[in-house]
């Protein structure tokens, strides 16, 4: 039985290849299983009375959201055209800032885009959810939260190595910076002030940190991976540019209603999510004895469902490791996506903002590709590393060339 010291995307993908519906392993001295069947995955993720998720459902801040946040959590988006245009303008302005940041820091060796992408998506979500802007503190906050995410993901309960003095200092500094930035955010929102008073400082800090991480960090990683993949597939870039120019000219304001018509843009994001899903591993704990596929699952067993592993498994997908957006082409007669495909999770804890996330990512990628050619800089050996979201094993580098 495999006994990894920590759970990584590569470990889960390799374990998935065994072909069993339930793959046992041990980690940190505890019994664990990887669920490797879509029907069993649905059963686990829908049964919270047997398979517990100890993370809160990100609802504690909902009373602090602004009116237009309804657009984010509505499956079909707000029916009010004014709200759609308002949100389009927010995404459009921050996409321009993102492009300016990449161009302003470019050199012959390209530019590392991840920090700029994170800050831009944080700005979008803060403005939509809380009607707040925190300026330069966005970059400070995202860097601090990235540091906290990295250290806590690698020093979690499955890896008992203690923090070094340097790591303790880094985390303490990151906590200090993130608290200062969050204080600035709260000072700009009377609703957040009220919620912090209700929850108390400690509970509020946990709630706002986790909510922001999910709101901006996960889509930021998907966006970064999408741009990286497109830099390596210039034909897909050209086809996407042609599709966009049918609906809008270079320099013309894009509105979300137009983005909905972009079949290839949608397919590119979905294929990115298949290969590199934001929710790469979904962890649960059995809180009572149960059975899966005839196997006894004792209480306290760690139960892992991995979109990353199943969506890269050749048992389920033809040429599973190949980037091929045509898999999701709605115009093809055989375009119905095969299972398993669940990059936003399944069951009651699946991402409530998945429809909006798709639109936002299509918008940003579409606008960039309409006006710039994304040029490959680094080699093809970039691997995903599993933290809260899938991070690249080293910074993603690329450059933009104006068309």
From TrEMBL:
Its EC number is 1.14.13.106. InterPro entries: Cyt_P450, Cyt_P450_CS, Cyt_P450_E_grp-IV, Cyt_P450_sf, Cytochrome_P450_monoxygenase. Heme binds at residue 351. It is an enzyme of class 1 (oxidoreductase). Keywords: Heme, Iron, Metal-binding, Monooxygenase, Oxidoreductase. The keyword Heme applies. PROSITE patterns: CYTOCHROME_P450 (PS00086). Transmembrane segments: none annotated. Its cofactor is heme. GO terms for molecular function: heme binding; iron ion binding; monooxygenase activity; oxidoreductase activity, acting on paired donors, with incorporation or reduction of molecular oxygen. The keyword Transferase does not apply. Belongs to the cytochrome P450 family. This is Epi-isozizaene 5-monooxygenase/(E)-beta-farnesene synthase.
């Amino acid at each position: 039985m495999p006994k990894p010291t920590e759970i990584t995307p590569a470990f889960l993908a390799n374990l998935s290849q065994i072909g069993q519906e339930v793959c046992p392993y041990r980690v940190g001295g505890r019994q664990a299983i990887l669920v490797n069947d879509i029907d069993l995955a649905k059963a686990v993720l829908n049964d919270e009375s047997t398979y517990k998720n100890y993370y809160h459902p990100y609802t504690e801040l909902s009373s602090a959201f602004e009116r237009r946040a309804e657009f984010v959590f509505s499956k079909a988006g707000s029916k009010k055209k004014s709200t759609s245009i308002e949100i389009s303008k927010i995404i459009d302005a921050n996409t321009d800032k993102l492009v300016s940041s990449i161009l302003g820091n470019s050199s012959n060796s390209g530019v590392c885009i991840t920090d700029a992408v994170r800050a831009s998506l944080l700005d979008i979500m803060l403005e939509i959810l809380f009607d707040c802007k925190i300026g330069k503190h966005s970059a400070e906050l995202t860097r601090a939260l990235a540091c906290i995410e990295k250290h806590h993901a690698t020093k979690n309960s499955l890896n008992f190595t203690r923090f070094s003095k340097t790591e303790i200092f880094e985390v303490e500094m990151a906590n200090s910076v993130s608290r200062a930035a969050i204080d600035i955010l709260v000072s700009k929102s009377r609703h957040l002030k009220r919620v912090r008073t209700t929850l108390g400082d400690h509970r509020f800090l946990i709630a706002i940190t986790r909510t922001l991480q999910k709101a901006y960090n996960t889509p930021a990683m998907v966006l970064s991976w999408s741009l990286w993949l497109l830099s390596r597939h210039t034909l897909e870039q050209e086809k996407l540019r042609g599709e966009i120019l049918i609906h809008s000219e270079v320099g013309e304001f894009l509105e979300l209603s137009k983005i909905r018509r972009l079949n290839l843009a949608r397919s590119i994001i979905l294929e990115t999510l298949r290969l590199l899903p934001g929710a790469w591993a979904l962890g649960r704990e059995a809180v009572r004895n149960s059975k899966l596929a005839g196997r006894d699952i004792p209480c306290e067993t760690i139960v892992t469902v991995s979109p990353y592993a199943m969506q890269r498994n050749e048992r389920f997908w033809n040429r599973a490791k190949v980037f091929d957006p045509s898999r999701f082409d709605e115009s093809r007669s055989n375009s119905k996506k095969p299972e398993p495909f669940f990059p936003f999770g399944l069951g009651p804890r699946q991402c409530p903002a998945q429809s909006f996330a798709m639109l936002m990512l299509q918008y940003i990628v579409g606008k960039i590709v309409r006006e710039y050619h994304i040029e490959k800089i680094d080699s093809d050996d970039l691997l995903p590393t599993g933290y809260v979201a899938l991070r690249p094993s080293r910074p993603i580098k690329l450059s933009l060339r104006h068309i």
